[in-house]
Amino acid sequence: MSTNNSKHKIAIIGAGLGGLACASALHKHGFDVHVYEKAKDFRPAGGGLGLLPNGLRSLDAINPGIVAEIKNSGSQVQQSISKSTQNETIRISPSNRYEDKYDFPFITIWWWRLQQILASNLPTNNIHLNHRCTGFSQDDEGIDIYFDGQDKVRTDLLIGADGINSAVRASLIGDGEPRYLQSMSWRAVTKCDQKVLNPGDFVVIRGDKEFMYLLHVGDGDIAWLYRERSLNPYKSANEDEAKSCVLDKIAQWGEPLRFLVEATPSERILEGGICDRQPLDSSDFSRHVEKREWFAVYFREPSYFLYLEVSSSKSFNPCLIVSSDKPVGQRLRRRRRLWP
């Protein structure tokens, strides 16, 4: 552990996959890193996700051996299958090319299980639940982070990994609400005796203006995601209504596909609009960075790019820029990084 690094306290807002992976990397380099999460506990939540070789390689660099743990907790994809809404197979593509070409496989896993794996890489006392960030302020000496119903925290560096409705981004940039992408989704993880996919299958069903993903996520659990184009977002009155909504939309689909949704407990189904953030234009970005020289550390989140900007004018005087503007990030990445 670097003695110099251990002097600096880093706070990460959000114990999702991005926040925990970042915290694990910083902890490995000897930084005193703490994660603050608004949830009161790490209960089973989220949907299924796929980890391609580049993601697994990044996690392996943080913690050699973690890929084996992810394999044991998830499912290695052997083939990708395209099906019609009547459950008819259209195309099969083997997935062993990933491991043959990149040395890492394609793995599907439940979001919650991957969260547990990443959290286990950190000391228990460094993860603080029931801490909903409401904003921050900063001066020449550091940053004060404010929480709902909790004491403020003083830190040297703040990283916002708190999702599409980031309180850190709101305090720093103040660019309003996320942009709705005219698409709604319903997703769930469930156990049932289904007849749609076998272990190792990754299935995509495409309709006219809709599609569904089906994947094994380990321990006999099946994850599904249904998404359709919708000009306006909406929210069902309750969980049962959300389930009925999906069943109505796939009423003409093949029986095995309908059964998978019917067998899913209503409380497991997550409904929501698909959103992203508008890119920062050059003038917005320059307003935050023009006064200093900056180092950049690059992370990737599902809906945006996250750039950590640290001023070189002082030994440790940080700021955070969140942007989905890839060219801006590419320009920054050509400069020297704080942590190689």
Can you walk me through this structure?
By secondary structure, this protein is an alpha+beta fold. It is 27% helix and 34% strand. α2 packs parallel to α6. The longest helix is centred in the first third of the chain and has 12 residues, at 17-28. The radius of gyration is 21 Å and the shape is globular.
**CATH fold naming of the largest domain:** FAD/NAD(P)-binding domain
SS field, number of helical segments: 11
Strand content: 25-35%
Adjacency order of strands in the biggest sheet: 6-5-14-15-16-13-17
The helical percent reads: 25-40%
Tally of individual domains = 2
Spatial shape: globular
Q: What top-tier CATH class of the largest domain fits best? A: Alpha Beta
| DSSP summary, beta strand count | 20
* Terminal CA distance: 16 Å
User: Mind describing the biggest β-sheet?
Assistant: 7 strands, mixed
Broad structural category: alpha+beta
Give structural attributes.
about 350 residues, alpha+beta, FAD/NAD(P)-binding domain, D-Amino Acid Oxidase, Chain A, domain 2, 2 domains, 7-stranded mixed β-sheet, 4-stranded parallel β-sheet, 11 helices, 20 strands, about 25% helix, globular
Short description:
The protein is of the alpha+beta class. It has helices at residues 3-6, 17-28, 53-62, 66-73, 96-102, 111-119, 167-172, 239-249, 255-262, 282-289, 326-333, and strands at 9-13, 32-36, 48-51, 75-76, 79-83, 89-94, 107-110, 127-128, 133-138, 143-147, 150-155, 157-160, 179-190, 201-206, 210-216, 222-229, 270-276, 294-300, 305-311, 317-323.
